[in-house]
Specification:
15 strands, seven-stranded parallel β-sheet, 12 helices
Length: 342
């Protein structure tokens, strides 16, 4: 992988790439951007996934699952680089379910990469492996990992990331770990629809004053950074933070989203301890009603929205040439351009 990422018009002809999680929000955008750059792309998709869009686009689809190593080997055959974006992303679920998808699945991806002779693995981790601090401190790649993590999602992402970092250089495999923040943009089916629903029902509130800084990663910016990480030789064995590089507060985000929707912004605020306690009650009540829908409020969700950190992307800017093209304002203006319904 000796192609210079600074030459975007000449860097990728003939390079093959497989994307796990290809039918997901990020995976779909990444596939499109890879094709635009000239990659020969392959999508890993479960047999039960909706793939009609990929079929119409002429994407090479390989049926399989990260929990099925044989299917992974088939999908990775003759691939130069693998983007591992698949995983369980939720604020609900058992530790076992998260571990199975995000740790066992990642271990299978690593093993299959080695067996198939893949040159480089780009692994999507999460900034939550650093905890969700509320101190407002600036955080970079040298910041120590969290000693303990309260939620199974973050714990599983940390364990998966550690596997990838240890795997670097073994069996000829290069690995790169990417830590994004909250991924957003048109087509998001995880975070944005819930915020939109709460705003339209006048139920979204600020936690505290709402002046905490959010770590946001627009799907277009993140896709750009992932491709740069794949094509930059010195990125091998490294960890990079990829956010939008702007200091956006929860107040900024909620008010901008309300303005985009044409609805009033949140009017009320509650202190973090009270909201966290209410979330714990909501989770307890949901457990009593086993089998019903997950609670609208979760402790992980509260901690995520109330997190206050300034994530430093200087390393990605220096070493990858990462320059987020989609600003917060531009991203908000185009958020519902594709008529995405909540």
């Amino acid at each position: 992988m000796s192609v210079d990422a600074g030459a975007p018009n000449a860097l990728v002809t003939g390079i093959s790439a497989m994307v796990s999680g290809a039918t997901g929000f990020l995976g779909g955008v990444l596939l499109s951007r890879l094709r635009e750059k000239g990659f020969r792309v392959r999508a890993l998709a479960r047999p039960t996934s909706e793939t009609s869009g990929l079929v119409r686009s002429g994407i090479d689809i390989s049926e399989g699952d990260v929990l099925d190593r044989q299917s992974l080997r088939r999908a990775m055959a003759k691939q130069h680089v693998v983007f591992h974006t698949a995983g369980r992303v939720s604020d609900q679920g058992s530790r076992r379910a998260f571990w199975h998808a995000n740790v066992d699945g990642t271990a299978n991806v690593i093993a299959a990469c080695r067996e198939a002779g893949v040159k480089r693995l780009i692994h999507l981790s999460s900034l939550t492996v650093l905890g969700l601090p509320r101190s407002g401190a600036r955080i970079d790649e040298q910041t120590p990992l969290a000693d303990s993590l309260r939620d199974p999602y973050s714990a599983s992402k940390l364990a998966g990331e550690k596997l990838v970092r240890v795997a670097h250089g073994s069996g000829g495999l290069e690995t790169v770990v990417i830590r994004p923040g909250m991924i957003w943009g048109p087509g998001d089916t995880t975070i944005m629809p819930r915020l939109v629903a709460l705003l339209r029902r006048r139920r979204l509130i600020f936690i505290g004053r709402g002046d905490n800084h959010l770590g946001l990663s627009h799907v277009e910016n993140l896709s750009q950074g992932l491709i740069q990480a794949a094509m930059t030789p010195r990125a091998a064995g490294q960890v990079f933070h990829l956010t939008d590089g702007e200091e956006v507060t929860a107040h900024d985000a909620f008010c901008a989203l309300a303005a985009t929707l044409g609805v009033p912004p949140p009017r009320f605020s509650l202190p973090f301890p009270l909201v966290y306690f209410l979330a714990a009650l909501a989770e307890w009540y949901a457990r009593l009603r086993a089998g019903d829908a997950a609670p609208a409020l979760s402790r992980y969700g509260v901690r995520m929205v109330a997190c206050d950190s300034r994530y430093d992307i200087g390393k990605a800017q220096r070493e990858l040439g990462y320059r987020p093209a989609v600003t917060f304002r531009r991203g908000m203006e185009s958020l519902f351009a594709a008529a995405v319904e909540p």
